[in-house]
Amino acid sequence: MLKRGFDVLLSALGLIVSLPVWAVIALAIKLQDNGPVFYRQQRVGKDGRLFMGLKFRSMVFDADKRWGAVPAKENDPRITKVGKLLRATAMDELPQLWNILRGDMSFVGPRPEWIELVKQFRREIPCFDLRHKVKPGLTGLAQVYGHSEISRRHKLRYDLLYARRQSFWMDIRLVLLSFAVTFAGRWEVREGKAPRRRPLLRAKKAIARSVWAAQTSLPKGASELPPSL
């Protein structure tokens, strides 16, 4: 209840305060290529429930049809000039405040993935759906303490750690760190974005415990995580 109350209050406030920013971003996107302002994509939420994720468009129009289900990478030719700035500051994620207000997402949790990518990851990682035991988030451990191109298996480690150790105060810390990263424009950097303070130096052991817990809860026939995880 505390987490949901925090999500509702902060997302409603964020939507109201950021409205002028929405107008500026919408104008910039239209002036860039006269394409659609918003990008809608089916994402996978808690317990595998599907919802329509909403973002400001940061890639060329019809990128999914032209390139298929491919994660963004460094110097990605699909990303527009306006999109590059939006992604560096995470301003492309602003419309997901609406998803949070609706209850599709939380402020903190594993990032919701595109359904087509989830199908691919399920084939590659038998325990991938364990990350869907918690509500997806706008930001999370992998986003703040990882970098933009860490492997899916590495991100899953962070997701399992959060699912195991989540707390309201951890959420507050990650939200504050995310604001700092946004103001610094460091969301697209290729190394960790936030300083690794002492509590997070113990994260490796916590991740190992999370992986062990995941192994014990896997269905029959999938008794262990991939060795490379």
Distance between the termini: 33 Å
Mean pLDDT figure? 83
Helix residue percentage = 40-55%
Oligomeric state of the chains in view: single chain
Shape: globular
Indicate the low-confidence ranges by residue numbers.
203-208, 210-229
The rounded Rg comes to 17 Å
Sequence of strands across the biggest β-sheet = 1-2
State the helix count.
Answer: 11
Q: Could you state the order of secondary-structure elements as H and E?
A: HHEEHHHEHEHHHHH
List how many beta strands DSSP finds: 4
* Count of folded domains: 1
Task: Give a written overview of the molecule.
Helix content is about 50%, strand content about 10%. By secondary structure, the protein is mainly α. It has one domain (about 1-215). Helix 6 (about 115-125) links the parallel strand 3 (about 105-110) and strand 4 (about 135-140). The radius of gyration is 17 Å and the shape is globular. The protein starts with a helix and ends in a 13-residue tail after the last helix.
